[in-house]
Specification:
Distance between the termini: 55 Å
Shape: globular
Order of helices and strands: HHHHHHHHHHHHH
Oligomer: single chain
Number of strands: 0
Low-confidence stretches: 1-8
Structural class: mainly alpha
Radius of gyration: 22 Å
Number of domains: 1
Length: 346
């Protein structure tokens, strides 16, 4: 008799997860509307097409990196090396271009670089059993150090206008930057994988419980390694877009961007403990964070202090989804400790 499929969430479990995600997304959508009203009330520039385009341009690469991070966190892991992978990709792009490599060959090398970076993270986590938090903190420093070795203090900025225009111009006949268009395409792909395939159900199952997922026959190590590799490739792509947007390759491109990526993922309703979240919530979080940053900048809010706002959002997005279960457990504990009434003293 076959063993029960405990690891793969059944239809009822998946519906429960999606209902929870929809409740969070509804609140997040209301927050996006509130941010739009706040921005419009503080500056007449906020809802202009030019300002909206600028907000889209500056958030495009962060949004792209948040997509594979979403799947990784739902699976119960995390990747804090995303911004360093971006910086390493940018540095290698500049280094190879300065040595007159053709751009298409450089793109191929950067794909391999992203695959290698993600594979290294994945193997350390899945084959050696190391915690992904510690591993990716280490590779955050490692990949940034490699970027420094590759490019040193040099700055490469002689890229052809045909490429640098990709970072600051819109897709023809639209007001959508190329980075946002790429984000939309990737969001659809990652959304289908997560919400409409057996791989997506396995990702949820791994986040809910690794042992149960293994018992159900899910190839946990393989899937997690593939998720880290996908993150590496997407972050390498983000490094290309970042470089073209600034028209500059430098080893410290993207420094600190991992905080924004994590903030978007958690604000999107993805549980830091794994097993919960959706691509739709992350898309709304991208809109919310981009709108909030844009509104604060238009009010002459200290740009450095925006980090305080992002940190606050991180705390809120971790606390709120977990507050209800904690309170429920506390109430149950109090009821259990309460003396039973009606006991006979005869």
């Amino acid at each position: 008799m076959p063993a029960p499929d405990r690891g793969r969430p059944g239809p009822a479990a998946l519906r429960s997860v999606l209902r929870g995600a929809m409740r969070w997304e509804t609140g997040l959508a209301a927050g996006v509307v509130a941010i739009a009203i706040f921005g419009a009330s503080t500056s007449a520039q906020f809802l202009t097409s030019g300002n909206i385009f600028n907000m889209e341009v500056t958030s495009g690469e962060i949004a792209i990196m948040a997509l594979p991070m979403t799947l990784i966190v739902i699976s119960g892991e995390i990747d804090l090396s995303v911004a360093s992978t971006l910086g390493m990709s940018s540095a290698l792009l500049g280094y190879l271009w300065a040595r007159h490599w053709p751009m298409l060959a450089i793109f191929a090398v950067l794909v391999l670089l992203g695959l290698a970076a993600g594979l290294f993270n994945g193997l350390l986590v899945t084959r050696l059993g190391l915690p992904s938090l510690a591993v990716t903190i280490g590779t955050l420093a490692l990949y940034r150090g490699i970027a420094l070795i590759i490019l040193g203090s040099n700055t490469i900025s002689d890229f052809p206008a045909a490429y640098t225009s990709i970072g600051v111009t819109a897709v023809p006949h639209t007001n959508i930057p190329w980075s946002v268009a790429i984000f939309v395409v990737l969001a659809v792909i990652f959304g289908i994988v997560l919400h409409a395939t057996a791989t997506g159900r396995s990702i949820y199952a791994m986040g809910a419980g690794t042992e149960a997922a293994l018992f159900a026959g899910i190839r946990v190590k393989r899937i997690k390694t593939m998720l880290f590799m996908a993150s590496g490739v997407v972050c390498a792509l983000a490094g290309v877009l970042w470089t073209f947007r600034l028209a500059t390759a430098v080893q410290n491109n993207g420094v600190g961007a991992e905080l924004n990526v994590v903030a978007i993922v958690l604000l999107g309703g993805v549980s830091i403990f794994g097993g919960k979240g959706s691509i739709g919530g992350v898309v709304l979080a991208v809109l919310a964070l981009a709108g909030l940053q844009g509104a604060l900048l238009l009010t002459n809010f200290n740009q450095e202090a925006i980090g305080i706002v992002i940190g606050g959002l991180l705390l809120v997005s971790v606390f709120v989804p977990n507050a209800a279960p904690v309170l429920a457990r506390a109430r149950a504990l109090l009821r259990a400790r309460r003396p039973t009434s009606g006991v006979s003293h005869d």
